[in-house]
Amino acid sequence: MSQESASWHRDPRIVLVQDKFFSLRPQPLEQWLWRQGIPAAAERVFWVHWEAGMRAGDWCSQIPISRVASRCCLDPSTVTRAYQVLGRLGLLRREDPGRDPANPFQQATAVTEVRVPRALLIELDQAPNRAPRLAQPEVAIDSPTALQTQPDPTKPAAPKAPPGHLKFRDYQRLIGRLSIREKTAYSDAWASDREGMEFDPETALTPEEQAHVRWQLYLKAKPAASEPRPERPAAPAAPATRAAFASPRRFSVLEAARLRRKLIEVVATANVAETFRQVLWSAEEGALRRFEPALATNIALKKLREGAWTRPNRMPPNWLRREVVQGAQPETCAAA
User: Fold this and answer.
1) How many domains does the chain have?
2) How far apart are CA 112 and CA 165, in angstroms?
3) pLDDT in tens, 59-91
4) Main-chain phi, psi angles of 113, to 5 degrees
5) Mean pLDDT for the chain?
6) Which domain holds residue 187?
7) How far apart are CA 275 and CA 270, in angstroms?
8) Helix, strand or coil for residue 60?
């Protein structure tokens, strides 16, 4: 009896669980979404990007709106409204990459990052954890069980990691340069958990780029428990010079004026006052007080350029140093 005919005599629920693909959704996150009362369409869009980001490993995905609408059985305009709802809740962050390198006359697909809201982080520690896996008992080398765990010499050895590291965008550009036949082979290998694929003789990828694609397929196909986790290097000791800046401090009027002048070059004019207030509090009483004033300013400016700056968590809502803020205001000379 063939495998296909045998599946007809099995319980279809068992077939769905054992043979078909299914998604795993974290229970605290799913229940938090239910409590927010977001539309069902927005929840579908979020889980599509969650699964794609989890597979990629960096929680980022680059899926066109038309494909998201097709997978969620929604209209593209509904998907656009879902992005707005998820963005206001802090669940998604979309970044416009600019023009498509392969077609300068076409806009590239936005990069979408799934995020965990701050409100959920507070509840995360209260959610129950899964039971830890029991350690496997040690088996003697001469026992039959040990022979089953030995590596099979007939199987090819695991490929070595290619040199260098590709970002998510670079990896997506490699996939975009594949031919139609190569894209089909890549999709089949990804869906069936194969550790490699064949490229065309006249492929557009170099041997090093092909190695990166095969390595991604290998990482996706291999069992998670088969690869030992690399040991993390010991964290370097903090410099002794930072200990002097651990306590709260006060910026002088000159230092505050320098900070405001640099913020004007990075932040929009309408947001300079509020951003200056947040950065000043973080540098004086928040997380940036451990660093020297110049270094704390550079760290804040870098986060602002990358769009990673957020309002300090413990900052009082009405905090304001009037003498410093007024002294940092630009003045015009009327005597000239």
Assistant:
1) 3
2) 20
3) 888 899 999 999 899 999 999 999 999 999 999
4) -115, 130
5) 77
6) 168-221
7) 10
8) strand
